[in-house]
Structure formats: structure tokens, C-alpha cells
């Protein structure tokens, strides 16, 4: 036998059901508030995602806003660790041209 439980109705849905004239819903992302008639319900949204929504950005667009910092990090990284630059390509070349390792 299956039993069903009814999920609690949201305040917005309950308000729309009892006050059909207030079915217009306003979502205020900046204030993190949903409004319908005289009902106001706050909602959670991280500051990062709030800012992305307000600026019209997706994750890639938000990342590209930090392009200068990312490029500076890359320059500092390679300056501090020059031995890591192209290590995979150098290792592959060594493995394919070294007579000892290429016979395996």
C-alpha cells in the first residue's frame, strides 16, 4: 500500500489561492524578496549568484571578469616554478625518444 503525504503549501501559493487578485508575483533579486499583494517572502541567494544575476552573467562571464587577476596569477606561477612549464610535453618527448624507455 502506498501512502501519500501532501507537501506544505508555500506562502505564495496559499496567498494566490485565497486572493486571486494578487496572482502577480514580483521577484526582487536585489533585495532577495518575493512579493505578491501584501505578502513578502525572503529567499536565499548567495552574494556571488545575486551579483551574477544582476549583472546578467553566467559562470564563465563572471570568471572572465577576473581575467586580469587570472593572467597575473599565471605569470607569477610560471615565474616561481619555471621547471613546471611544459613538463608534460618534455616528459612525453623524453619517453618517446629515449632508447631505454621507448622499447617498453
How would you describe this structure to a colleague?
Strand 1 and strand 2 form a beta hairpin. The chain folds into two domains: 8-65, no CATH class; 67-104, no CATH class. Mean pLDDT is 83; it is low at 1-7. With 104 residues, it is mainly α. Helix content is 46%, strand content 11%. It has a three-stranded antiparallel β-sheet, with helices on one face. It has five helices and three strands; from the N terminus they run H-E-E-E-H-H-H-H. It has helices at 11-18, 47-55, 59-64, 67-80, 87-97; strands at residues 26-28, 33-36, 39-42. It is elongated. Residues 1-21 are annotated as: Disordered.
Strands, helices and their partners?
Layout: H1 11-18, E1 26-28, E2 33-36, E3 39-42, H2 47-55, H3 59-64, H4 67-80, H5 87-97
Antiparallel strand pairs: 1-2, 2-3
Q: Summary?
A:
This protein has 104 residues and is mostly helical.
**Main sheet record:** 3 strands, antiparallel
The multimeric state of the shown protein is single chain
Mean pLDDT across all residues, rounded?
A: 83
Shape: elongated
Strand content: 5-15%
Number of domains: 2
Helix/strand/pairing category: mainly alpha
Strand order of the largest sheet: 1-2-3
Helix and strand sequence: HEEEHHHH
Radius of gyration: 28 Å
Number of strands: 3
**First CA to last CA: what distance?**
63 Å
Low-confidence stretches: 1-7
Helix content: 40-55%
- Please tally the helical runs, counting DSSP H or I stretches of 4 or more residues: 5
Region (Disordered): 1-21
